[in-house]
Design goal:
Strand order of the largest sheet: 1-4-5-6-7-8-9
Radius of gyration: 19 Å
Number of domains: 1
Bound molecules: coproporphyrinogen III
CATH topology: TIM Barrel
Distance between the termini: 19 Å
Helix content: 40-55%
CATH class: Alpha Beta
Number of strands: 9
Strand content: 5-15%
CATH architecture: Alpha-Beta Barrel
Largest sheet: 7 strands, parallel
Structural class: alpha/beta
Length: 335
């Protein structure tokens, strides 16, 4: 059981464990094959049998220590009434939020819509080796809000004017999301998932004076729910830089995924009472093998005597060569 993520998070013990964000995805030819015959991404996410199959693809190929269920953070806004479409090269696009509808969805209705995800977890947990953890996930409220209100201005900017001028109550949306995200976490765990990761991919773009209200508080509420329910949890507040420290002290998750901008030495000194995960730049896998191993060594060496889970500083890129992933895993295990 030494590589079991659930145990690492519960006991905060040092051991050897590796998985990658976006390990099930576009860089795998076996995923592309399924994707080609399933052009509608949302429909694919709701196909329990195929979702389970995709989840297990990287496990079968690389024997990773954990599986992450193939799904998407945007299924929650979908279940709360917004249409979601994925436009090639532009990313996801959601229909305009209808507040009446959004606030009226019942727990039962929400469960019914997301039932295929829970079914996929059930199927996968039965097929997965007992010592491997099955990771479920949600998007944090702020990150979902970014998509729900279409706040993205290009790849790396937020249109904050929409937050100020919006006649929609932001706090009402965040609170309602928090409630349903907790429900979604509970449902995924009840279906057989062992861990939850909370993705706050846009945390680095929260306006400075709103960081407590939009980022720390909602994540804290979700982590407190997890603690009450004894659900091992990992937060990923991407882009927070030095505010990772404040985030960790306030939110107190079991695990924290650092992004590639966080210095591993700084993280080890400052992030306490938490299992640190990840950090390696996904672009390291696109460089020469020598450079990839050199960058990986920085993390593995630094964290070798602390509770650390080997992973990346963001998801695997679609252009990654699967053979590189295999070599990186071997390098880590042989270290
Ligand atoms: O392997 C895994 O990590 C599990 C599956 C997973 C997906 N999305 C599948 C997916 C996970 C954990 C996510 C999380 C997710 N989804 C996040 C948070 C993590 C992050 O990357 O910051 C976000 C912001 C989304 C929203 C989303 N879904 C975007 C922006 C996109 C399109 C662009 C992109 O980055 O891929 C998706 C589509 C998506 N979700 C794909 C996959 C495999 C690609 C679908 C395809 O075009 O074939």
């Amino acid at each position: 059981m030494i590589n079991n993520l659930e145990n690492i998070l519960k006991k905060k013990i040092s051991c050897k464990s590796v998985w990658f964000m976006r390990q099930a995805g576009r860089y795998l030819p076996e995923f592309q094959e399924i994707r080609q015959n399933n052009k509608n991404f949302i429909e694919l996410c709701f196909n329990s049998k195929l979702s389970s199959e995709i989840t297990l693809q990287p496990i079968n190929r690389f024997n990773l220590d954990s599986a992450i269920i193939f799904s998407d953070i945007l299924l929650v806004p979908y279940a709360l009434g917004q249409e979601v479409s994925f436009i090639k090269n532009l990313g996801p696009e959601l229909s305009k939020i209808n507040m009446n509808k959004f606030l009226k969805i019942s727990d039962d209705n929400f469960y019914e819509t997301l039932k295929p995800v829970y079914k996929a977890i059930e199927i996968t947990r039965k097929k997965l080796d007992r010592e491997k953890s099955l990771i479920s996930f949600v998007g944090a409220p702020w990150t979902l809000l970014v998509y729900m209100l279409d706040l993205r201005k290009g790849k790396n900017k937020i249109d904050t004017s929409k937050l100020d001028s919006s006649d929609i109550e932001i706090s009402t949306i965040l609170d309602n999301l928090t409630k349903f995200l907790c429900l979604h976490i509970k449902n995924q765990i009840d279906a057989g998932a062992n861990v939850v990761q909370i993705f706050d991919s846009w945390a680095g773009f929260v306006p400075e004076k709103k960081i407590n209200e939009y980022c720390f508080t909602p994540n804290k509420k979700i982590v407190e729910f997890c603690r009450k329910e004894k659900i091992p949890n990992i937060c990923f507040p991407k882009g927070l830089q030095k505010k990772y420290l404040e985030f960790n002290n306030i939110v107190q998750p079991d695990g924290i995924n650092i992004d590639y901008e966080v210095e591993p030495v700084w993280a080890k000194e400052n992030l306490k009472n938490v299992v640190i995960q990840g950090g390696l730049h996904p672009e390291a896998l696109l460089k020469t093998e020598e450079e990839m191993f050199k960058e990986a060594t920085k993390y593995i060496q630094n964290f070798k005597d602390t509770p650390y889970v080997f992973n990346l500083g963001h998801g695997l890129l679609p252009e990654t060569d699967p053979d590189r992933v295999k070599k990186l895993i071997k390098f880590y295990r042989d270290f």
